[in-house]
Write a structure and sequence with these properties.
The protein is an alpha/beta fold. The chain contains 14 helices and 17 strands. Strands 10, 11, 12, 13, 14, 15 and 17 form a seven-stranded mixed β-sheet that branches. The structure holds zinc ion (2 copies).
Length: 408
């Protein structure tokens, strides 16, 4: 029998219809009971009602309401119903229990030297770099001829980044039917199967569409590791570029070409002035196969409004932009550095900073919502917005004003 208390509380401003809120309260209760156990069913009624009310109060529109409910249910599942770990619209439910995700307690940081000190404390250690597939100087020094032989063999065949089929690199321009799902499969806890959010197909399906709801006419590949990447184009090391210390947030958009996964847009934003230092569409070295427009937001690369990859790199590697003293900020930053073919020591990576349970990287989109309460990447990605958001997450974490543009 349904508990009579299991209904939404009355609010002056309701973001959604009563009927919808009613369903959410029930859904929350159902999830909580599943996570905590049947014997707590009665006790969990209050919690479900309270959680729904918090979501409803923090949402101005029905869309935000639905989004916040989804984030909440996902977090409850991820944290096995432990509400100490739960935030609603960026605010922790139980204050003081989420040190890692909240801004640092204490005064607002205003002194540039103190800020630089705090940023230095956030730099990835060599071990963290190694663990997160960053290409380091050490790796290059370890690179030897013995290895090279192995690579020549390995590099003849590649796995398609999308359909996982093995194919010859030299066949990259051959027309094929590469079937894939654009979104990652998700585990469905209730039904114990995987489903693909892009199309709703599941691992239980027998339809030919389970192999992929999208078809592309080429296989594509994404090389990893110094040996393969440097064969395509060489890395630059910033250690020889002198200059004053500065702080720059970076985001790249990438696409697939005949040479793999390449940079097609690069954005750099200055941490202190919020000024966009560089934002250009870049022409990759290989022939474009797929600009990944749905995500990258780049629909075409015209000669007139783009610059070659090499020129872009020349433009950004100098004493005023990226030099050996620069602190670079990114999210899942090894991907950006790899497509830029850059070796750099001083990196802050928000994906590594905010590992969930010490293990799982969170999407920038989710982190932005939790920490800043902003929604990004609702459609195509925009490297300018992503670079600014990543930077703002670091500012929020260190208690630095996000809007301030002038410093003493
Ligand atoms: Zn699909
Ligand atoms: Zn494929």
């Amino acid at each position: 029998m349904t508990d009579p208390g299991l209904r939404p509380v009355d609010l002056a401003n309701q973001p959604a219809k009563f009927q919808d809120r009613y369903k959410v309260v029930h859904k929350l209760h159902e999830e909580l009971v599943r996570l905590k156990g049947n014997k707590y069913a009665k006790k969990l009624v209050k919690l479900a009602v309270m959680l729904e009310a918090k979501v409803a109060k923090s949402s101005k529109t029905a869309q935000t309401y639905r989004f916040t409910v989804n984030v909440l249910i996902r977090d409850l599942i991820n944290h096995k119903g432990n509400i100490n770990e739960i935030s609603i619209a960026g605010k922790p439910l139980i204050p003081g229990k989420q040190k890692a995700i909240r801004g640092v307690d204490g005064p607002i940081l205003e002194d540039v030297n103190k800020i630089m000190e705090a940023l230095n404390d956030l730099l990835l250690t060599p071990e963290q770099m190694e663990k997160n597939s960053y290409i380091t100087r050490q790796q290059i020094e370890d690179f030897n001829l013995e290895f090279l032989n192995k690579v020549t063999f390995e590099s003849k065949y590649v796995d398609c980044f999308r359909c996982k089929m093995k194919f010859q690199r030299s066949d990259i321009k051959k027309e094929v039917m590469c079937k894939y799902h654009p979104s990652k499969k998700q585990y469905n806890f209730e039904g114990k199967f995987y489903d693909y959010p892009c199309c709703g197909e599941t691992s239980l399906s027998v339809s030919p569409q389970r192999l992929g709801c999208k078809v592309f006419k080429h296989h594509v590949f994404k090389d990893e590791g110094y040996t393969l990447l440097s064969k395509i184009s060489p890395f630059s090391d910033t250690k020889n570029i002198n200059g004053l210390s500065n702080v720059i947030s970076i985001d790249c958009e990438m696409g697939f070409t005949t040479l793999g996964y390449e940079m097609i847009r690069l954005t750099m934003v200055d941490f202190f002035t919020n000024r966009v230092l560089f934002d250009k569409i870049t022409r990759p070295l290989g022939e474009v196969l797929d600009l990944n427009s749905e995500y990258s937001g780049v629909h075409e690369i015209k000669d007139s409004d783009s610059i070659p990859y090499d020129d872009a790199m020349k433009e950004i590697l100098n004493k005023n932009m990226i030099n050996k003293n620069t602190i670079l900020i990114g999210h899942g930053f090894e991907n950006d550095l790899n497509v830029m073919r850059l070796i750099h020591d001083k990196c802050i990576d928000t994906a590594v900073m905010f590992l969930r349970k010490g293990t799982y990287k969170q999407a920038l989109k989710d982190l932005a919502f939790k920490m800043l309460g902003v929604k990004i990447q609702t459609g195509e990605h925009d490297s300018a917005i992503d670079a600014i958001t990543t930077m703002n997450i670091v500012k929020k974490h260190l208690n630095i004003s996000i809007d301030r543009k002038e410093w003493n």
